[in-house]
Write a structure and sequence with these properties.
By secondary structure, the protein is an alpha/beta fold. It is built from 13 helices and eleven strands. It has two domains: 172 residues, Rossmann fold, CATH 3.40.50; 181 residues, Dehydroquinate synthase-like - alpha domain (Dehydroquinate synthase-like, alpha domain). Bound molecules: nicotinamide-adenine-dinucleotide and zinc ion (ZN).
Length: 359
């Protein structure tokens, strides 16, 4: 097992990454001073796969466990579902000291985290992420939220967990598309901050895709570490965290124009290649860097080409993106593999050319 220590404000907590961790979570929580009642929030798929392993380990340590089930899917990240969970927490007599364990992907982590942050003004939260995306991205940084109408992820809080348990064994049951989606954020993290890790990905992509335990542990550990470093330096998202948006300016716009038929990971993959091409055209990124990035993304099973969508609509959507500052669209560009530049000064005509696929 490998540990990452995260110090945010007055909080300090650990991210544990490795194999066989679910069964030992009860023991770890006892060691941290928790006892008595505990509530797991999860979805039926994850509960069926991992509820028992986690539950048995908790029961062995004397915890009285209640499990609250939420159907899978983004639609559950709502105030309505949060409201139902508050009601169920009251019924199970969860108290101010009762920990909530969010066991599942980013949806469960965001929703369970939001509920933990607000129920009785905050109860202890333990994130137990089970998708690649949630292990390397959403469980780290303390952003918890629900969606509300057009406001995606906008009703929320910064709320840090007591512990994050990333058991890499859980990744072995992930559908290939979910793995690829998480890999988009993995490649992003390497591209913006860690040239050596990028080379590791180039050399080990086949092992990762075939779910080799050691390779997965390395991937989750290194990516989680990068995110932890960045969010620690910028807890409230006012500066450095911007670099995590590499590929997301165009990616979000593509997701939105596709009516969310295109998933987040593939959209970010296309956005990363487009941003690298912009970087290359502006004389920042050498040809070799662009080719390496495009190759790794393609080999990961992710798309690299802008889909057949109205390009004007993508540009329009980018202007509405939250990263817009005074009518200018903020881009994260690559100077080389592992180094970025955040800028508002990308000419709109260059963006249009790259989106249109002109050479
Ligand atoms: N808080 C943040 O900083 C942050 C960052 C990025 C994304 N997010 C959020 O994360 C969410 C997406 O998360 P996600 O990609 O994990 O999707 P998800 O939570 O919807 O999970 C995807 C699917 O995989 C299933 N699943 C989960 N673990 C599994 C496993 N081990 N084996 C088999 N199936 C499993 C789930 O039941 C679900 O159907 C979005 O709501 C997004 O807004 C939050
Ligand atoms: Zn993302």
């Amino acid at each position: 097992m490998r540990k990452i220590s995260v110090a945010l404000g007055s909080n300090r907590y650990e991210i544990h990454v490795g194999s066989g961790l679910l069964a030992r979570t009860g023991h770890r929580l006892r060691e941290s001073g928790f006892s008595g009642k505990l509530v797991i929030i999860t979805d039926p798929t994850v509960s069926r796969l991992y509820g028992e392993t986690l539950g048995q380990g908790l029961a062995k340590e004397g915890f009285a466990v209640s499990t609250l089930l939420v159907p899978a899917g983004e639609a559950q990240k709502s105030l309505e579902t949060a409201g139902r969970l508050y009601h169920e927490l009251t019924e199970t007599r969860a108290e101010r000291t009762t920990p909530i364990l969010a066991l599942g992907g980013g949806v469960i982590g965001d929703l369970g985290g939001f509920v933990a942050a607000t129920y009785l003004r905050g109860v202890p939260l333990v994130q137990v992420p089970t998708t690649l995306l949630s292990q390397v991205d959403s469980s780290i940084g303390g952003k918890v939220a629900v969606d509300h109408g057009q406001l995606k992820n906008k009703i929320g809080a910064f709320y840090q967990p007591e512990l994050v348990v990333a058991d890499t064994d859980t990744l072995k049951t992930l559908p290939a598309a979910e793995l690829a989606s998480g890999l988009a954020e993995v490649i992003k993290s390497a591209a913006i901050r860690d040239r050596e890790f990028f080379t590791f990905l180039e050399q080990n992509l086949e092992r990762i895709k075939s779910l080799d335990g050691e390779a997965l542990e390395e991937v989750v550990f290194r990516t989680a570490q990068i995110k932890a470093e960045v969010v620690t330096a910028d807890e409230k998202d006012t500066g450095l965290r911007n670099i995590l948006n590499y590929g997301h300016t165009i990616g979000h716009a593509i997701e939105s124009v596709s009516g969310f038929r295109m998933e987040h990971g593939p959209a970010v993959a296309i956005g990363m290649v487009a941003a690298a091409r912009i970087s290359n055209r502006m004389g920042l990124l050498a040809d070799d860097g662009l080719v390496r990035l495009e190759n790794v993304i393609g080999r990961a099973g992710l798309p690299t080409k802008v889909p057949e969508l109205k390009k004007e609509k993508i540009i329009q959507a980018m202007k509405h993106d939250k990263k817009v500052r005074k009518e200018k669209v903020r881009f994260v560009l690559l100077k080389s593999i592992g180094r970025v530049l955040v800028t508002d000064e990308v000419s709109p005509s260059l963006v249009e050319e790259v989106l249109a696929g002109e050479k």
